[in-house]
UniProtKB/TrEMBL annotation:
An example Gene Ontology molecular-function term: hydrolase activity, acting on carbon-nitrogen (but not peptide) bonds
Domain Aminodeoxyfutalosine deaminase/Imidazolonepropionase-like composite: 28-49
UniProt keyword annotation of Ligase present: no
Keywords of this entry: Hydrolase, Metal-binding, Zinc
Keyword Metal-binding: yes
Chain ranges passing through the membrane: none
The protein's name in its UniProt record: Cytosine/adenosine deaminase-related metal-dependent hydrolase
Positions of the Amidohydrolase-related domain: 61-420
Pfam families cross-referenced by the UniProt entry: Amidohydro_1, HUTI_composite_bact
Top-rank lineage group of the source organism: Bacteria
Family matches, as InterPro entries: Amidohydro-rel, Metal-dep_hydrolase_composite, Metal_Hydrolase, MQNX/HUTI_composite_N, MTA/SAH_deaminase
């Protein structure tokens, strides 16, 4: 077997280096040894111990490998769905079910997840908060040497179903040996009974696993938790009457308060989307340590409102950013979502000079934080040598972060994982 080319025992240099943890470095360089970062600085201040090492000089901007805070790589084959446009979450869900039910061969989930991993790698992503709904998609991160967590998803479990074998099946799945890190994803507070979510989060916590769910993605979600509005559960047909929220006419709680009541919030949990949350709900997330991964392009395809990006930034949230899957997004290029976040924040009135710095932080350190990792997401001595280079031209006097955020999409020329070159273009 041919091994990957390596950057171990060499210097990766670029016109600009963005360590994220620290100021941008003009004519910067990273020394790599045994898959780790041995040194970061300006090329002209290279310590003598690295003086004899080969130097590869790249055009553009070098960053830590990007961290995708919310994906479902197993839906990479659903790109035709993601190229459409929809009028509501319920409308998109109906179309999604058609695609999902059409998959006959379970091996397709594994093939699609591998295709997705390759696409993401080619755009500079090296770590994922990845949701696995079907077993054949599991293990793909480890297979590709990618970092992150594969969250096993539970969906459509009422208490009745959970008690009739669902609990045993899910627990057995969770405890099945696998390569890589496992987490628990209660799909959403509307698609599982609250009691089931309480048990799922307890299962995760008793195993030291993280939790990841979809919250505040549908416009009508809040009215289900509040007074039992059935609309968000439309695709469940008659079965929706089996859900406790419908039977009981809701709980009178707001979305985040309901999520808190079923133990879904906490520093060991992060949520995708967080669109339809008011100030009190957002404060509850922040104060409970629950982070949000925003997926702006997916939201746009599905026809949802824009997430309150400017509010999240102003209110002191440390956000992450995700592409979601190709079933609701045009690509797995995380920098396209970073650009979309910046545009939204600006259109919502965020005018602080740190905007580009903060959205890049979301795609690196913010993502690492939702994976509970401190060894990825930044360039610092001792961290993993997971690197990406983007061939963007930085104008004279321009902040390289602005260049990367606004023109970085599609420009990745090099992706390195643990010192191994896993993508190289136009060298
Ligand atoms: Zn999702």
């Amino acid at each position: 077997m041919r091994s990957n080319p390596t950057v171990n025992d060499s210097i990766v240099a670029a016109e600009w280096v963005l360590p994220i943890a620290g100021a941008a470095i003009h004519h910067g360089a990273v020394a790599v040894r045994e898959g780790r970062i041995a040194w970061v600085g300006s090329l002209e201040s290279l310590p003598s111990e690295f003086a004899g090492w080969p130097v590869a000089l790249h055009a553009g901007v070098l960053t830590p490998g990007l961290v995708n805070g919310h994906t479902h790589l197993q839906y990479t084959g659903f790109a035709d769905l993601g190229r459409g446009s929809y009028t509501s979450f319920e409308h998109w869900s109906e179309e999604f079910e058609v695609f999902y039910d059409a998959v006959q061969d379970p091996a397709e989930w594994g093939r699609a997840a591998r295709d997705g991993a390759a696409l993401a790698l080619a755009s500079g992503t090296t770590a994922f908060a990845e949701i696995v709904t079907d077993e054949p998609a599991r293990g793909v991160l480890a297979e590709f040497g990618l970092q992150g967590i594969e969250y096993l998803e539970a969906i459509g479990e009422t208490e009745t179903r959970w008690n009739a074998g669902g609990r045993e099946a899910f627990t057995a799945w969770l405890d099945q040996p696998t390569a890589g890190v496992v987490g628990v994803s209660p799909h959403a507070p509307y698609s599982l009974d609250g009691e089931v979510i309480r048990e799922l989060t307890a299962l995760a916590r008793s195993r030291g696993m993280r939790i990841h769910s979809h919250v505040g993605e549908s416009e009508v979600e809040a009215s289900l938790y509040d007074f039992g509005n059935r609309d968000v559960l439309e695709i469940y047909g008659d079965m929706r009457d089996e859900f406790a929220l419908i039977r009981n006419g809701g709980t009178g709680l707001s979305t985040a308060r309901y999520a808190a009541s079923i133990d879904l919030l906490g520093a060991d949990s992060h949520l995708a989307h967080g669109i339809y949350l008011d100030r009190a709900d957002r404060d509850l997330l922040r104060d409970s340590g629950t982070r949000v991964a925003l997926c702006p392009r997916s939201n746009r395809v599905i026809g949802l409102a824009a997430a309150p990006v400017a509010d999240y930034l102003r209110e002191g949230h440390e956000i992450a950013v995700g592409t979601d899957s190709l079933s609701s997004s045009p690509s797995l290029d995380l920098l396209a979502d970073v650009a979309a976040l910046a545009e939204l924040a600006t259109s919502q009135g965020y005018a602080d000079a740190d905007l580009h710095e903060r959205v890049l932080y979301a795609a690196t350190v913010g993502g690492a934080a939702v994976l509970d990792r401190t060894d990825i997401g930044a360039l610092r001595e001792g961290m993993r040598a997971d690197l990406a280079v983007f061939d963007v031209k930085v104008a004279e006097g321009e902040d390289p972060r602005t260049a990367l955020v606004t023109r970085g999409e599609g420009s990745c020329t090099l992706t390195v994982i643990g010192g191994d070159v896993r993508h190289a273009r136009g060298a």
